[in-house]
């Protein structure tokens, strides 16, 4: 099977107030990272830190790596009186601090408030491809399905102390960047490289690292990088979404071998689908990736599972994905859990009677962050440092 790995950005937060803390430099300075472990690295803002996994072969292996990365980040944060929370935007309003770095300083100068306010935490899935040429074929075939992943991962309903009405407000904030969002069909690696060069030649963006397409060819790895997801509240959901991404990549490659052409969906429709997924998450309708008409979110999610089910079945992951999707739909995504945490706190504070229509208080939002911090490392105790048992590497159908 293709190898896959992920990058997760998590917030560094105060354990009582829930406010973001600008401690990334301090965490990295005191973090003793074994050479064989997952990594920690800085991001645009000092209030966040990124974890990376090694290339993995199975859901269980990847989930283990994700959990270990979260434990590592949290242990580093605790040395400085903080903790980490896997949420895609901060529920609480606060100033942000840009990581001291010449490139980031140039971004701040060039993009102003877009860079100043860009405290967002994404989840990037890398899946191996045999060549950049195959990677471009994959990009063309998967572009119309990516919005479903946004809905599944949505984990940012609050922004600067206010409810947004969106499940993934990170998507809205992120799409302020000039190259973000869905891309048109490329058709070939030559066309992909030509477009990248033309974007760089405009002088609007600083470098190729700012090619922020929903999915792109990685500059540093032989992978396709899918970038539409919020960081997931739960490690198991993150690993599940990564399995879906890998299945999409493999399905696209098989379609190429069968001579199936990518669906020429207009980019404007893809933007509609992305916006709707960002707004509704799993609460209402998504745009079906077949006809781009509204359908109940669960129907569109299951349609995606059906689409990649031959690959999932062949790889022994279909029953695992079905169970994981059903659990996620029953429980709700991270945005739903955040809202529920705010309601629970408010109900306790007001004797079981929440005040409908009132925005959550700072104390309620602190409770949201506290809940998120617990869930982020739940099930990630000392056994997260051990390798998973080989018998857990794959789930096979009877």
TrEMBL record:
Catalytic activity: L-cysteine + L-glutamate + ATP = gamma-L-glutamyl-L-cysteine + ADP + phosphate + H(+)
Class of enzymatic activity (EC top level): ligase
Keyword ATP-binding: yes
Keyword Transmembrane: no
Pfam families given in the database record: GCS2
GO molecular function: ligase activity
E.C. numbers: 6.3.2.2
InterPro entries found in the cross-reference section: GCL_type2/YbdK_subfam, GCS2, Gln_synth/guanido_kin_cat_dom, YbdK
Region of interest (Disordered), ranges: 378-398
Key words of the record: ATP-binding, Ligase, Nucleotide-binding
Family under the similarity heading: Belongs to the glutamate--cysteine ligase type 2 family. YbdK subfamily.
Role played: ATP-dependent carboxylate-amine ligase which exhibits weak glutamate--cysteine ligase activity.
PANTHER family membership: GLUTAMATE--CYSTEINE LIGASE 2-RELATED
Protein name: Putative glutamate--cysteine ligase 2
Origin species: Paenarthrobacter nicotinovorans
